[in-house]
């Protein structure tokens, strides 16, 4: 996460919500809102370490779903037990974001027009090449996304 020196982005968000409320629905006694994009600033402040509620010990394997969508590592997407390698992937994505001014991956699925793991993996494969076979052998959902030869199935 990055600090924001100009907090006008939040007042803009609030004003937009007041004048053009986000769609919402009631579900099980609670209100669920459709996400609204924040206006992105041309610059960000220093990176901030956050979300220590999800912190885990590095050498132990974990399988819980972590990371914001666009920073998800292949292990997390593929539901493979992960360690500190997921954090290293995050640092790489963050460095790209800082130097290029945008995310290296969006994961936006052309069919659903929203984030989907299959679209995120397709972006990774286009940029980095096929997933290593050893990685695919460790994964639960491999058969739904990859053929027996390790080729990505069509979206």
TrEMBL record:
Keyword annotations for this protein, in alphabetical order, are: ATP-binding, Kinase, Nucleotide-binding, Serine/threonine-protein kinase, Transferase
Listed Gene3D superfamilies: Transferase(Phosphotransferase) domain 1 (1.10.510.10)
GO MF annotations, alphabetized = ATP binding; protein serine/threonine kinase activity
Keyword flag Kinase: yes
Q: Which residues form the Protein kinase domain?
A: 1-155
One GO term of the cellular component aspect? nucleus
Q: Which GO terms describe its biological process?
A: regulation of RNA splicing
Q: Which InterPro entries match?
A: CLK_kinases, Kinase-like_dom_sf, Prot_kinase_dom
Give the protein's recorded name.
Protein kinase domain-containing protein
Q: Which organism is it from?
A: Talaromyces atroroseus
